[in-house]
Amino acid sequence: MTGFDTAWRRLAAAALIATMPMACTALAPPPANPFDGPWSTSERKQISFRPETVVFNPPGQPATPLSAETCSGKFRFAYSRQSRDALLTLAGRQADLRRRLTDLLVQPEYPVAQMTCGEGGTTYVMLGDKELVAIHHDLDIAGVERWSRP
Questions:
Q1: Percent of the chain having pLDDT more than 90?
Q2: Torsion angle of alpha carbons 56, 67, 29, 35, nearest 10°?
Q3: Taking all residues of the chain, what is their mean pLDDT, rounded to a whole number?
Q4: Please, are residues 37 and 49 in contact by the beta-carbon 8 Å criterion?
Q5: What pLDDT was estimated at residue 123?
Q6: pTM of the predicted model, to two decimals?
Q7: What is the phi-psi region of residue 103: left when phi exceeds 0, alpha when psi lies from -120 to 50, beta otherwise?
Q8: Terminal CA-CA length for the chain
Q9: In contact, 35 and 51? CB cutoff 8 Å
Q10: Domain containing residue 124
Q11: Which one of 21, 44, 80, 97 is most buried, counting C-beta atoms within 10 A?
Q12: 108 Cβ contact list (under 8 Å, min separation 6)
């Protein structure tokens, strides 16, 4: 191969690389967190989600971000996805709660925010853009609370 052939191949490779669209090489921004923003119950309880925690906003009181300090040293929080079947197991042996969750959870999988605080925990399940359900669980006892946003 001559020096001319090598130079020509290098020039062709450089031209090919230069014509590649930037979209192929640029990193896409992370998807927006569907839980972000304020949520409230019919009793005017309010919460909001942050990347690393849940913030409780009781009416007439200061906002409280949950952490190990506010949860007797035991705090975990994470976003993920869970299957309908896994979420139904949170009802434990409570048949009435299991029926209620069966009626609410009609999709095969849901985005969730899971929080452990002290000895109990809450799994927040995104039902739609403006509706979520909180499944509170502590050993064999569970309860459900509905949240919405404007």
A1: 63
A2: -30
A3: 84
A4: yes
A5: 96
A6: 0.77
A7: alpha
A8: 70
A9: no
A10: 29-148
A11: 97
A12: 83, 84
Is 10 among the domain residues? Answer: no
Portion of the chain with pLDDT greater than 70, in percent = 79
Q: Which amino acid, one-letter code, is at 24? A: C
Q: What distance in Å separates the CA atoms of residue 140 and residue 15, rounded to the nearest whole number?
A: 66
Question: C-alpha distances in angstroms, 137 versus 42, 55, 66?
Answer: 21, 19, 17
Residue 23, domain member (yes or no) = no
Does some domain include residue 21?
no
Question: Per-residue pLDDT tens for 40-66?
Answer: 998 888 999 999 999 999 888 899 999
Taking phi first (over 0 means left), then psi (-120 to 50 degrees means alpha), and beta for anything else, what does residue 15 get? Answer: alpha
Token reading at 50: 């942050």
In this model, does residue 82 exceed pLDDT 80? yes
In a domain, 16, yes or no: no
**How many residues can be counted in the chain?**
150
